Amino acid sequence: MSKKKGYQKYTSEFKEEAVKIALSSDQPYSVTAKELGINLGTFYKWTSDAINNQTNPSNQNKKNMNNKLLELEIRELKKKLKKTEMERDILKKAAAYFANQDM
């Protein structure tokens, strides 16, 4: 079998530890994935699989884990939105400044 370029095989222990870090941390998954050198899509799949494959999870526990995943994603998106809004405001001010300077 030929391997895809850039493909990396991770041990099951590494995957388990990465998921534990993600679920116990308050930082966004993207930050954790970057710190560990893992593709974000791969990291999301690992965490999702771990939550779905827990042995005898109660429905409440599973809902809590899914809620945590959603909360982390929302927090990350809010940070990105805030940054984008700040960049937009700076560009508006710069455009107004240069428009007034031409007169």
Task: Characterise this structure.
By secondary structure, the protein is an all-alpha fold. It has one domain. 75% of the residues lie in helices and 0% in strands. The protein has helices at residues 12-24, 29-36, 40-52, 59-101. The radius of gyration is 20 Å and the shape is elongated. The mean pLDDT is 83.
Assembly state: single chain
- Structural class call reads mainly alpha
What best-fitting shape do the alpha-carbon axes yield? elongated
Question: What would you report as the Rg, rounded to the nearest angstrom?
Answer: 20 Å
Spatial gap, N to C terminus: 67 Å
Give the count of structural domains: 1
Q: How confident overall, as mean pLDDT?
A: 83
Instruction: Estimate percent helicity.
Output: over 70%
Number of DSSP strand runs: 0
Weakly predicted, low-confidence segments: none
Order of helices and strands, N to C? HHHH
Number of helices: 4
**Biggest beta sheet attributes:** none
Beta-strand content: under 5%
Short description:
The chain has 103 residues and is mainly alpha-helical.
Secondary structure elements and pairings:
Layout: H1 12-24, H2 29-36, H3 40-52, H4 59-101
Q: What are the key terms here?
A:
75% helix, mainly alpha, 103 residues, elongated
